[in-house]
Amino acid sequence: MQSSSARISVSGAVHRQHLENIFSQENFFVVSGLITVLFLILLLVYLNHRKKLVILNTTEELLIAEARYRHLFEQSPISLWEEDLSEVRQYLDQLARQGVTDFHRYFTTHPNLLRLCAEKIRIVEVNARTLDLYETDSVDDLRRLSHFLPEESEWIVKEELVELLQHGKFEITVMNRTFGGRELTIELRAVVAEGYEHTWKKVYVSVVDITEQTKLKKEKEQYEKQLQQTQKLEAIGSLAGGIAHDFNNILSPIMGRAELMLIESKGNPVMREHCQTILEASKRARDLIKQILAFSREVDQEIKPVYLSNVLRDIIQLVRPTLPTTIALEIDIQDDLSPVMADVTQLHQVVMNLVTNAFHAMEEKGGTLAFVLREKILKYQDLSEYTLSPGRYLQLQISDTGHGMDEETLGKIFNPYFSTKARDKGTGLGLAVVHGILRSYGGDIHVQSTVDKGTMFTVYLPVVDICEQNEVQSPRQKQTPMGNGEHILLVDDETAIAEVTGDMLTRLGYKVTVRVSSVEALEAFRNLSSQIDLVITDLTMPQMTGLQLYSKIKKISPSVRVIICTGFSEQLDHRKSVAIGVDAYLNKPVLMEDLAYAVHSVLQ
Fold it and tell me: Checking phi first, is residue 451 left (phi over 0); if not, alpha (psi -120 to 50) or beta?
């Protein structure tokens, strides 16, 4: 029994020990599980906290970025707006599913659908600069792109859609207009926002106003054209000078021989008539060359008393042969008009410009070109339309019966570079230059015009009172002055001119030694310097010019008198010749009477 109890006691102890082991293991797992769960909970709390921090930081960054974008958007000095083209993109995708691949061609052949696309484009947001640019205070005015597109400019939308499909961006320079009517030239750039390539929900657009730059560029081009025109005129002037020199050399012997024949044919009235006709025609040719030179070459201004009636008659004589028979002339010039203070060349420019405008206005249908020149006294009540002072003025009216001008054109005709003519008819500077010239003389110009009836320009120039004796340099005698056998050395490389001038001088009573070479003339002067009273030399000669010959002769005999003649020269004129000490200056062709007075005056 004891042993049995002992076995039971041992067995119970073992069982308890086993149970204690089991319970100790379970406690370990429970504790471990609890710890793990607690760790996981703490980890989740930590991660959630980190996530919240990231979300908060990201949200803050997004808000800062949004604020920065909003600030840049609103404060941008260029026009910015955001477009929504999602409806358009859906429509394009629908067309693509129907088999449309060439949208450029498709919209070209379906302009009504293009206009529909333009109506679908919505402008979501614009900045302040856009409102200023298009001169509006209402954003609603800019909600639809079609509201401020130029008329008949849906092609811009077509180009934008095609470019966005192909490249995701679009650029163009186009003319536009503000809601106030002002014309704009803009550079427009559009780009699809990142992430919206398939929906076009956001398309960012920037617009740069380049109106002033375009205007300056056009003005620069006009200035360059004007510079080219000036260079052409300089070339024409040089060419005209060369032609004038040669033409005057041709005219000189013709006029000279005609004068000599006129003197020698006193008993032959028929011959005298022929000679007189030749002489008059030669004089007209000489005057024509002078006028061509006045228009084609640039000369320094010489403000002096000018008779406008003479200028007007010269111009009428010049343009009469060039007018077609469909244009009639009416001339009404008052006699005995006072002179005006002006530069002759500029007066020619003013009148010729007005005449040219009148001619172009009647070129197609013909009409009447009228000139009226009067002296008029302007009083205070007459000056409401002019920037003039009361006083005496010459009033020149040049009118035509051409196509006329409307009020809008009349308001622009004196603006530089404004022109109603075709490209090959002028530069648009004419009337602006005319206005400037007249204002510089204390004058003014006014224009009246009626469409399909004609135009009349009225020019006012203040008159000047001068003493008659100041205009006449030296009163000429009734009879041509004759020589007393004075010895003249005549030098001209043109044999015909040398011979006829020599014959004139001989008939006038002078002894003449003729040379056709400046080198030979210098040698002759060395041999005859004590006998020579006067040297008459051409200016333009080979080997040695007239001025070079003059210089060498003066070194040999400082007291000898010298007259220089030329057909044309930009290097020497009457004023310059006096400045360098030349005794007289004559322009070819020289009339026998002018030659006689010049020689007599120098010798006396």
Answer: beta
